[in-house]
Amino acid sequence: MKSATSRLAGLDLNLLIVLRELLRERNVTRAAERVGVSQPAVSAALARLRRYFDDDLLIRRSGRYELSALAFQLGEQVEAVCEGVERLLATGSRFDAATSRREFTIVMSDYAVAVLGQPLAGAVNAAAPHARLNVVLVRESLAANITQTIRVVDCVVSQATSRFRIPEIRSAPLLTDRWVCVVAAGNRRFGEESADLGELATATWVVPYHDDAEFPSVVPVSRQLSRLGVRPQVAVRVDSFHAVPYLLASTDHVALMQERLARECARHLPLRILACPTPLEPLEARLWWHERHDEEAGHRWFRRLVLGAAQGGTPVPVPPADGSGAESRHRHG
After folding, report:
1. Are 219 and 268 members of one domain?
2. 268 and 297 share a domain?
């Protein structure tokens, strides 16, 4: 039986790039376009991969390709290997955004997508037209799994929690927002300018990521409701920030929302935005990354774009990765 080293030596690593695109696209022509080679070249590479893995990998059904069971298993592993090789080859080299085909992965909530998505995607498209932006929507388990997550992605957009106390994590301030109460335009249970605590205590709520068993939880809305002294009577629970106003606009419920998202949604939904009865702590989102990315040219370029998107699309300088300036090893009191 061949050793792992001899098996690796017998594999053309260029085939892994082709395999990654075949698994992503499930289409030989589109994979060829992504890699920048001819369709026959990709077909020949697929034939070699099939022989190597002794598996069809792509199975044609009803005029299109589907992944085999083995191909599904290979998907995440190939992504990780290719990313590692790309980072290895990028170490110490210059980064040319105009020609790079690198993929940048950023993890954020749908709230952050609503605020940052358009300027960030536009900036990447303009400056690096061949690069790929991979936006991973955050799940409730992000904070619990941040140690693993931060090692395999480029950046994470999140508020700080105690679970971000990781020695090798770095961060920079990204954006601030404030919390507001939101009701349907026709909801007359509330005043015109602000909501009072009595109204909030007896109201029914639309709450994102609510957990009946744990209140307050690590979710930002839950913590702010606790600060108001309100344990919400939940009428609608949804695993999304952006979905909240759509589930609110035709009801007599109330929600606590980020003001930027609320005002954007109020442009096309019948909503009223009310001040909270007492000041709440501002929402302060940070950009997080692993310290191994500090001096890597491509990553520094991408961080600059993300920080610029948060400031209205204006590129910002990235200070030295020594804990000075805006970037820091984030410390908790």
Report:
1. yes
2. no
Angle at the Cα of 141 (from 135 to 142), degrees rounded to 5?
Answer: 45
If we measure between CA atoms, which residue out of 178, 187, 175 comes closest to residue 269? 187
Same domain, 108 and 247: no
Number of domains in the chain: 3
**What pairs with residue 257 in β-bridges?**
180
Position 8, amino acid: L
Q: Residue 66 maps to which CATH number?
A: 1.10.10.10
Spatial separation of the C-alpha atoms in residues 252 and 186, rounded to whole Å: 8
Token code pair at residue 332: 């908790």
Query: 300 and 162 share a domain?
Result: yes
Distance between CA atoms of residues 55 and 23, nearest Å: 14
The secondary structure of residue 275, as a DSSP letter, is: B
Mean pLDDT, the chain, integer? 83
Check residue 87 and give its pLDDT.
63
CA distance 281 to 14: 51
Cβ(291)–Cβ(169) below 8 Å: yes
Q: How far is CA 194 from the centre of its chain?
A: 33
Which residues form the domain of 186? 179-274
Q: Please tell me the total number of residues recorded for the chain in this structure.
A: 333
CA separation, residue 194 to residues 189, 200, 212, 298 (Å): 11, 11, 27, 46
C-alpha closest to that of 84 among 7, 13, 168, 169: 13
pTM attached to this predicted model: 0.68
DSSP-derived letter for residue 282 is P
Both 172 and 295 in a single domain? yes
Output the domain CATH number for residue 239: 3.40.190.10
Predicted pLDDT of residue 323:
38
